[in-house]
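Hey, I was hoping to borrow your eyes for a little while. There's a protein on my desk that I can't quite get my head around. The fold is given in discrete form, as structure tokens running alongside the sequence. I'd be grateful if you could look everything over and explain what you see. Here's the protein in full, and shout if anything looks odd to you:
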Amino acid sequence: MKFELFTVAMAAASLAVAASGAQAHGPTRQKVSETIEINAPPAKVWAVVGNFQDGGWIPVVDKTEGTGGSAAGAKRTLTLKGGATVEEEVAKLEPEKMTLMYRIDKVDVKVLPVTNYSSWLVVTPQDGGAKSKVEWRGAFYRGYPNNDPPPELNDEAAIAAVTGLYKAGLENLKKKIESGS
């Protein structure tokens, strides 16, 4: 009798585990990383990238307003061309490593279809310091947190939007620095 009860209990537990595993688990964290080489010394590139209060090198940004400089806890609001805004905050700044980590505090998913977004900008020397490599990487969830997202808020839309932002931003950064503007 004890063996039968044990067998029934194990079968019930197995069914419970199988049933919970069959349920969809929702979105997974996505990651994007883009890099570019810039024909300028790292200090010159870092002077632009590390200045959190100036997002003007990002092509979609019309205006940057903020407080706290570039230190951890500094905040900025990016007003985009078209009027939408993105609120961001510095999570970590390591000037000696030329690394800036920030998070988006508030953005309309119609503007950027992501949630829980964090990003890193890293400048590293190339060619003995004559050139720089800039990496812009981010981690985020899609704009729709539940199962069965609409196409404009699914994983693919989030990845495409962030990839497009990073590529355009890095190309514009390269152009701005290399032209001296």
In short: The beta strands are 30-38, 61-67, 75-80, 85-94, 99-107, 114-126, 131-142.
